[in-house]
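Would you mind writing out the residues of a protein together with its fold in token form for me to study?
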Amino acid sequence: MILVTGATGFIGRQLVARLMADGKRVRCLIPEEQESPWENPPDIITGNILDEEALFKAVTGVHVIIHLENAFWWGRPRDLERIELAGTRALIAAARAARVGRIITLSHIGAAPSSAYPLIQIKGMVEEIVRSSGLAYTIIRTGIVFGEQDAFINHIAMLLRAVPLFFLMPGRGEVVLHPIYIDDLVDVLMRSLEQIEVVDTLVEVGGPEYITLEDLIRTVMRVSRAPRVIISVPPYILRWITAVYSRVLPRSLVTMQWLDLLATNRATQLGNTYSYFGIRPRRLEDTLLTYMRGRRYLMPMLRYTFRRRPKGI
């Protein structure tokens, strides 16, 4: 039995569908307010990651946990600390009591407890918790994950529709990113279940190319056919603007965590995905062309902005 936390998220939905298609026995821990996104749902335990009773039910009979629960696209610092740190500690305590064999979790390239950026710092602290858990582990650090329902590249496209004349870019756009397509990351997670070589290991994976933030923005403009004038803005000003929008609107297209990811380079060795897992990842622009060209973003932008934020734990 495989337990997946964060199963209704962008990565979790795709992973659970793949696991079930592959004939794996899957269990998902899902908060009460969320509905199952699958037509033929797996075994579902209702409750949050700090609910001891729900965690006990979720980990009973499980041999592997794939821990994807997070709050980094929408949460405030309090949400990050409770869901990422306290939630991981509670999950590991329950897993050890139930004699779970292994935990696999995702992190970010550059994660470090000493980082000056809250998201990257907390991800580094989560890694330390997992390493010292006493469970066999695999930590997979990734570049920014993109796909048809992602909350990064799609949000850039939404911002282009929200402001028709210009686009505010943090800094000079020289930060180097290493995006990876969602299907390639799901392949990585699937293969990590079987490969002994990645047990008790931290692995960094990304796509087949590096790209600067400015080039990424221009690529999204080109593919979505929304040319804009790019205006370079000091990151601290964008953080002020984001703080205001986060207080006014239910959801902001740009969050503090979004800006944390763009604060420094996020790249690893180009061949890691193939070297560790035998996967040849797909190129960014080629993949965007399969679903972004001709897609309308104005209405999705309005629906997202005025949708209620997830309920904090």
Remarks:
- The domain at 2-145+180-205 is CATH 3.40.50.720 (Rossmann fold).
- Residues 2 and 26 are 5 Å apart (CA to CA).
- The chain has two domains: 2-145+180-205, 153-176+209-266+282-305.
